[in-house]
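#lab-general

N.A. 3:47 PM
ok so I finally got the sequence cleaned up, no stray characters, all 215 residues accounted for. can someone with queue access submit it? mine expired

B.Y. 3:52 PM
send it over

N.A. 3:53 PM
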Amino acid sequence: MPRLQLVIFDMDGVIFQGCNFWLDLHRTFGTDQAALDLADLYMTNDYRLLSRLTVADLWAGKSARPFIDLIETRRLMPGAKELFNFLNDNGIRTAIISSGPYQLAQRAQKLFGIDQIRANHVMIEGKRFVGTVDVQVEDSKKDLVAKEIMEALGASYLEAAGIGDSLSDAKIMERVCCSIAFNTKSEDLIRLCKFHIQSLKEAITVLRGYFDNFS
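B.Y. 4:20 PM
back already:
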């Protein structure tokens, strides 16, 4: 049996409750329909352009207070503390790969000591949106980010696990030997993953049984 060195997490709907942070923010600003229109045009063929246009056209100059409030009030998924305590106690490295907000990933990093975070960083100055974004993660290219992180942390395919809840996370699952679909409605993700769990505490049982670190 392999030894676990790294667990890669999606963020929205896995570490934090809520399926789509950006959509919640759009609803707060009243820009949800405009965002959906942009997504129809660019989501599948130019994610970076979609991100730039969204931030520049819909949010530039607006107060970032609603964004900051959402970051600060996002609730943890039940079992998240227990899972990260288990991983930290056993010296397992962790990473986030998410197309959600970098600032929310930073919050998780501070809470749990996560080793590597990759997410999309909307720039704020003077408590207002600047109108620019650093796109670190494209939904359709999470595998490339996973490869980069695994190389940086020295973890091979056989030493890595992934936990995600949407089909875009399938790209991560291609890079790890222990693929875990968490609380998902995506039948495609369930078929692609080796395990399907309904609570994060179940992940502890899966990892204990799959890797020999814990025998």
